[in-house]
Structures are given as structure tokens and as C-alpha cells.
């Protein structure tokens, strides 16, 4: 074991997507995570979210399985679950029961809408949760429908990473005071939190409600993606004046119209002009000219390409476990370096019955 959470034991019970992602982050950072699931379910080697776990196969529909989980919980520092509100209580393993037996337990709950409220028991997915946060409405091109940003904003950023942070904070409190607590993480609220800076811009009148009209949503000619001569794409983010000047210099653009960088009315015309420039060379030719400069440039890499990019490779940003290429654990610690991902293994020290 390695990492700053070495010595911390977490139980992971049920759930898909965000709860396993939170448990993966805790495991990546050194915690012993025991994943409780039904007998025979297993974890496929391609299930990156299931890495670095110890597995306890328990039938939570049986008296014996529930008793075994309660025994495991007595020695745990935290528990993560992703069921609908009330499910754990119906099984007899809700926070009231488990914190009575282990008062220092941190009981982390991951749901879309939260444990309370009018929508608490309604079904949903990432797209629904971020729709209520204000995030989905802000993503997309003008005149088009909002674009789902994969499941990054709700499930993984506003969900799993939100819960991993909350669990760590509550674990610090429990170690200091000996008192556990319930952590109620809702993806709709986590996604809202990710929008904090944009709500500030909105309050200042610096953010237009219509999609594709702002600096950071693809409206500006200096902050967008462009197609290259070989049908691939590049990303430009030259916001600051000195970086914008560097971009124009390296592109050989002397057109005075580009001097009005922040004139929103000029953006559509300037975007057409700069797009025509980028179509004159291949992605690799633009890399040779712009990569590593202050022009704020990057090639748009596919998942197949990203691990082999020179910078990502030099940093060890990706690793391979059981033949599966995947993001490496992170972040980087000077005193408690993280171990590579491990294949799941059977948990010891427990038995059902």
C-alpha cells in the first residue's frame, strides 16, 4: 500500500459510475477499499473504476450477508454507497444502524438528487442532474440544443470527485474528534458547485445566457477548436493579450481586424478568417509550429492517441494494468507517492454467516 490514505479502510456498497469512481480515487490514494458485491459478480479487467479493490462477495438479500457487512463496518473508517434513498435502511444497514455500532464511521451517500427533496426518489442520470444545475444550458453552439458533456460534469466531477473530497474531509474530522457522520452528496449540487465561477460572471453581467456567445464557450476566435488540412483538430486558448499576440505572430497574421480581440461583434468574422488559416496545414504541421509555445495550443488527441503524447508519456499520465491502458493514479505527492493500479483481490478477515 502507498499514498496519503494508507491505513484507512473504506467499504464500497453498490452503485455504478460516480460511487465506484469515488472509491477508485480513495483506493488510488492509498486507502484499503473493500468492494461488497453479490457472489459471482466479479470485476472485469476492463472495469477501470473497479481497480485496486479487495472484494467481499456478500448476498445483501440474506441475513448472513447483512450480518457480515455489519461486521466489516465495525472495523471500517468509511462506507460509500450509491443506492436510491432508503435502500440501505430497508436492508438494515443504514447510517443509524451502522453508526450505532461504529460511531466514528463516515457514511458517504452518492445520489443524483440527494437524500431529501421532491426529486429524491426519482430515477435519473448525469444529463438530468446537470440540467438542473445550469451547466447543461451553457454548453453547446448558438442556435442548437445543449450538448451533453459526456458524463464528466455530473457523474464524475460533480459526483465521484465531489464525494471523494467530502469523504476525505469527514475522515479528517472523525480522526480528530472520534465522531463519524453522514455525507449526503448529490450530483445536481456537485455540478452546481462546478459552475461557481460562471455564476460569479453571470452576477457581474459578464456571461450571456445564450450558448456560444462567451469567451469560454466557443464564441471567441481565440478560444475554440479548429479543423486542420488532414481532417483532424487543434485547440486554441489564447485569452491573455500577450498569448494572443504570440498566436497571431506565429500564424503570420497581420490583418488589423484581429487587433480588436475582445470585440464580440467581430468574433464571427475573425473566426472564419482564422479557421481558413488552420485549414492550410495538417495537425502535425501545426504542432511543429505551435506546440510548446505561449500561443496556448494543443492538438486534439483521441483516447487512443493521448497516452502516447510526448508530454503525457514523460509525466506517466497513463499506465497499463492487465493489458488495459488507463489513467494513472494521481495527483503526485512528494512524501507519499502513489502505487500503480492493482487487479482486484479477495478480501481477508471476513466471512459470511
Task: Write a structural description.
The protein is of the alpha/beta class. Helices cover 34% and strands 15% of the residues. The chain contains twelve helices and twelve strands. It has a seven-stranded parallel β-sheet with strand order 6-5-4-1-2-3-12, with helices on both faces. Strands 7-8-9 form a three-stranded antiparallel β-sheet, with helices on one face. Helix 1 links the parallel strand 1 and strand 2. The longest helix has 26 residues. The chain is elongated. The two termini are 29 Å apart.
Q: Could you provide a short overview of the structure?
A:
With 353 residues, the chain is α/β, with parallel strands linked by helices. The chain has helices spanning 18-28, 63-74, 87-90, 95-101, 126-133, 152-177, 187-194, 196-203, 241-251, 267-278, 283-290, 310-315, and strands at 9-13, 32-37, 54-57, 78-81, 106-111, 181-186, 223-227, 233-237, 297-299, 318-321, 324-327, 345-346.
List low-confidence stretches: none
Q: Number of helical runs? A: 12
Q: In total, how many beta strands? A: 12
| SS-based class | alpha/beta
Beta-strand residue fraction: 15-25%
Beginning-to-end CA distance, first to last residue: 29 Å
Trace the largest sheet across and list its strands: 6-5-4-1-2-3-12
Q: Given the C-alpha coordinates, what overall shape results?
A: elongated
Major sheet summary line? 7 strands, parallel
Overall pLDDT level: 96
Residue share in helix = 25-40%
**What series of H and E elements makes up the topology?**
EHEEHEHHEHHEHHEEHHHEHEEE
Q: What is the gyration radius calculated from CA atoms? A: 24 Å
Amino acid at each position: 500500500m502507498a499514498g496519503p490514505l494508507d491505513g484507512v479502510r473504506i467499504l464500497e456498497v453498490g452503485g455504478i459510475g460516480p460511487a465506484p469512481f469515488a472509491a477508485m480515487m480513495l483506493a488510488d490514494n492509498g486507502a484499503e477499499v473493500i468492494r461488497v458485491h453479490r457472489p459471482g459478480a466479479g470485476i472485469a479487467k476492463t472495469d477501470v473504476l473497479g481497480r485496486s479493490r479487495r472484494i467481499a462477495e456478500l448476498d445483501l438479500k440474506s441475513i448472513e450477508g447483512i450480518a457480515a457487512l455489519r461486521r466489516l463496518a465495525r472495523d471500517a473508517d468509511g462506507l460509500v454507497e450509491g443506492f436510491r434513498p432508503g435502500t440501505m435502511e430497508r436492508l438494515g444497514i443504514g447510517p443509524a444502524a451502522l453508526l450505532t455500532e461504529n460511531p466514528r464511521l463516515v457514511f458517504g451517500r452518492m445520489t443524483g438528487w440527494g437524500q431529501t427533496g421532491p426529486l429524491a426518489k426519482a430515477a435519473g442520470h448525469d444529463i438530468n442532474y446537470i440540467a438542473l444545475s445550469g451547466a447543461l444550458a451553457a454548453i453547446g453552439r448558438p442556435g442548437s440544443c445543449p450538448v451533453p458533456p459526456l458524463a464528466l460534469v455530473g457523474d464524475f466531477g460533480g459526483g465521484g470527485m465531489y464525494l471523494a473530497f467530502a469523504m476525505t474531509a469527514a475522515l479528517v474530522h472523525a480522526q480528530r474528534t472520534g465522531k463519524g457522520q453522514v455525507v449526503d452528496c448529490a450530483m445536481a449540487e456537485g455540478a452546481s458547485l462546478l459552475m461557481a465561477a460562471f455564476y460569479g460572471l453571470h452576477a457581474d453581467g459578464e456571461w450571456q445566457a445564450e450558448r456560444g456567445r462567451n469567451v469560454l464557450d466557443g464564441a471567441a476566435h481565440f478560444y475554440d477548436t479548429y479543423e486542420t488540412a488532414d481532417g483532424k483538430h487543434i485547440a486554441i486558448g489564447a485569452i491573455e493579450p500577450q498569448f494572443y499576440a504570440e498566436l497571431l505572430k506565429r500564424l503570420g497574421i497581420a490583418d488589423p481586424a484581429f487587433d480588436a480581440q475582445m470585440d464580440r461583434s467581430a468574433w464571427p468574422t475573425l473566426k472564419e478568417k482564422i479557421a481558413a488559416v488552420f485549414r492550410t496545414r495538417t495537425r502535425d504541421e501545426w504542432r511543429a509550429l505551435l506546440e510548446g509555445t505561449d500561443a496556448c495550443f494543443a492538438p486534439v488527441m483521441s483516447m487512443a492517441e493521448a497516452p502516447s503524447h510526448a508530454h503525457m508519456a514523460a509525466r506517466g499520465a497513463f499506465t497499463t494494468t492487465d493489458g488495459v491502458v488507463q489513467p494513472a493514479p494521481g495527483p503526485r505527492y512528494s512524501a507519499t507517492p502513489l502505487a500503480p493500479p492493482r487487479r482486484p483481490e479477495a478480501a481477508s478477515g471476513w466471512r459470511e454467516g
